[in-house]
Amino acid sequence: MIHPTALIGKNVIIGNNVSVGAYSVIDNAIIMHNAEIGAGCVIGKEGFNFYKDGTGLLRRKFHKQMVFIGSDVVIGANTTIDRGLRRHTIVGRGTIINAQCHIAHDCIIGDNNILPSGVILGGFVKTGNDVKFGMGVIVHPERKIADRVFVGMGSIVIRDVTECSTIAGNPAKTISKRGHDA
Ligand SMILES: CC(C)(COP(=O)(O)OP(=O)(O)OC[C@H]1O[C@@H](n2cnc3c(N)ncnc32)[C@H](O)[C@@H]1OP(=O)(O)O)[C@@H](O)C(=O)NCCC(=O)NCCS
To answer: Is the C or the N end of the chain the one with fewer CB within 10 Å?
Structure first.
């Protein structure tokens, strides 16, 4: 069910059995079947990218790509997902995102990721499948995280994570080779 107070704007395609919570605002997005979008989410707005014009003023770059939300994705309340600058922002099938997360422009999140509350992914971050984050993780823009990595709560990820492992801390470092048991 689409809540009557949700604003579904331009360039939106919504699949079967999708629910959208109260006061969510969605533009420029394709949302596949069975997705569940909580209250107060903002999806498909401009990303945070600027350039200086001839006078030295910062001007927002125009983001013309979409947001693609795979089937069976769950998105918690007040989460924001920006549209892409150079490629579509993608949330893979079956990924579960809790409240108050921010997924920046051009991120590609794999299938079956778990993002608890407060996770922030900078622009162009790419994650594999079955990645699990703890609460409040921040990932530096453009970093890549391999399949089944477990990122401990509160971690700051500043380097690519190329192998399945558990990482934690600021800056995040490997604490075990185990990773997330998908
Ligand atoms: C990463 C995590 C899975 C590690 O758990 P674990 O394997 O039981 O690890 P331990 O608690 O034995 O800690 C191992 C070492 O890593 C350190 N460590 C663990 N988690 C850490 C974190 N988030 N940040 C910094 N250091 C961490 C510990 O201090 C310990 O260091 P030491 O050996 O020097 O004492 C766990 O700490 C975590 O962050 N879980 C996510 C919780 C969460 O947000 N769940 C979602 C709720 S919806």
So the answer is: N
